[in-house]
Amino acid sequence: NITHPCKQLVLGHLDEVDPTAAALGAVNTVVFAADGRTSGYNTDTTGFAHGFAEGLPDASVDTVVLVGAGGAGAAVADALLRLGSGHLTVVDLDVDRAHRLARELAARYPLAHIDASAFDKLSVLLPDSDGVVHATPTGMAAHPGMAFSADLLHSRTWVADIVYRPLNTALLQAARAAGCRTLDGGHMAVYQATDAFALITGITPDAERMAKHFRSLVEEHRVEP
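Structure (tokenized):
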């Protein structure tokens, strides 16, 4: 399992790269074959998709706002589009980066409407969206706070946060106070691990047991941010 800051660096050292991981430009799982050949995969994107399906099973993804266009944001965007999002808006403080990601996604998902926007447009975007996914470091233990104002949240909008330490981020607390359905970052964290475990070992793990163990470790502050 590969983590930041090596998800991009590892690409040049692999024999094969899964098409999705290649398109995302990031690998977080490397499988070693018996002959020593290496294959790279991205289970961040499959992990978010599985976690979303479990945590918000009947939530609409027709119109979604994604806050954060980094590596994690790209993986989440790919997952949302595979889940059937028809209109995805990528928002980032670096608007150029948001536009680059939007263009890359549009090339791979031509049937979806994908665009980019600046943070100051969130007040216009969020009221018309089914949901919003937060994919920036803001809210982590080392980066407390919220990436955008809670005043922009509406009860009809679901809110997902990929931050998992803490699980109960300031954003999710504000979202629940506003009447929103929420999804914490533990879902993505666990399912990227279960997907990676299955690829590496060929064994399907007990996701429910892993989730319980993961959450107990987070509560005991034994999981690194």
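Residues 109 and 224 are 35 Å apart (CA to CA). The beta strands are 16-17, 29-32, 38-41, 63-67, 87-91, 113-117, 131-134, 158-161, 182-183.
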